[in-house]
Amino acid sequence: MNNSTQQLSLLVINSAQLEGDSQVQHHFGPEGGTLGASDQDNWQLRESIGSVLPGHARIDVIDGHFCLHDQSGQTFINGSGSPVGGDRHVRLSPGDELTVGPFQIRVSLGQRHHDPALDELMDKRPQRDMDTWLEDTQHDAGTTHTVTKAPRQDDPLGALQQDSHSVSSLVTGSMPQPAFSEQTGELSGGKETVNQSFIELPGVGRTGLTHDESMVAALEIVMSGMGGNLAVTESSTAAEMLFDMGRTLRALVEGLLALQAEQGALADKLLRPIEDNPLRLGLDYHDTLSLLFAEGQSPVHLSAPAAVAELLSNIRLQHTASQKATSVALHSVLQAFSPEGLLARFAHYRRGGQGESAGWEWEMYQHYFRELTSSRQQGFEKLFRQVYAQAYDRAVRDGLEPL
């Protein structure tokens, strides 16, 4: 009899690294458990190089949430360059990826149907019993089997794991007739392989996620990448949120392209053999989008997160440099209008025989101001622009990171 409980499902993505009788997938219930290389671990992960330790990590339930405790201090999450560390617990979210030794492990959460019969069939049956079961089933008298040609799969159980959230989500209430598929592959994560046809498991459907489930799953992946965790169960709501995220991303890319088009002065300071940021190639929105996200993107172009981060960093640098340059230019203008500077300049305007009368300085200043603001003069603007350009250039070059 099936029941439904809150479970954490962990799936090894690179299952070819597994050895011995290690299982590709494991479910943790509210009681939690450990994963590691020891026989005492709830999920045993065996490999050849010894990088997975006994009790490598532990799954605990804290305040109703599944959390990871890095007991070995050598467990990583979501591509981080630093381990989680044994002094804290990290709450796990759907779509998270753990690195345990050589294994990449994907996380999924939720209500999972548990079928003890399926566990007995997949996880507890020894290899020799499985072989005997296959052989006996193929020669079962009075049974007609249909042999069909199926695409090769490296892992025969992979068909049961197309939904990475859980093998159990594929279980249906129907009991289809057994049918053979000619396949070759590993029946477990170990080195021993079975090079023979195998029977499809009774009671297990081949259907994947429904359209509604796909929408919710896609939103979970996007939210994981954004570092958020919004609980959405309605497919219509998930579709609207995904559409709004797409529109937001478009506005962001178009805005960055427009800003970059106005950063000619800053672009001239980025002295590199090639331009590897797709946002700085001068392309339109659609071409830039292809370079950022398409499958065939250039291996020498920055990834989308790195390209956006670099451009935003340059924008901040430009803003800082502009503030510094403005301050320096204004200071130069003020110095040019200092009383000492003006008097020294006025002294050179005096012609022979012209003496200093009372109020001569004020009279000279009035002449000076009229000439300064006349249409034939541009010295004031030129002074500001020249000083600003030099100070801006210096601030930008000081702020740019060396290659």
From TrEMBL:
Gene3D superfamilies associated with the record: 2.60.200.20
Segments forming domain Type VI secretion system FHA: 225-394
Matching InterPro entries: SMAD_FHA_dom_sf, T6SS_FHA, T6SS_FHA_C
Ranges where the record places region Disordered: 137-160
Pfam families for the chain: T6SS_FHA_C
Protein name: Type VI secretion system-associated FHA domain protein TagH
Gene: tagH
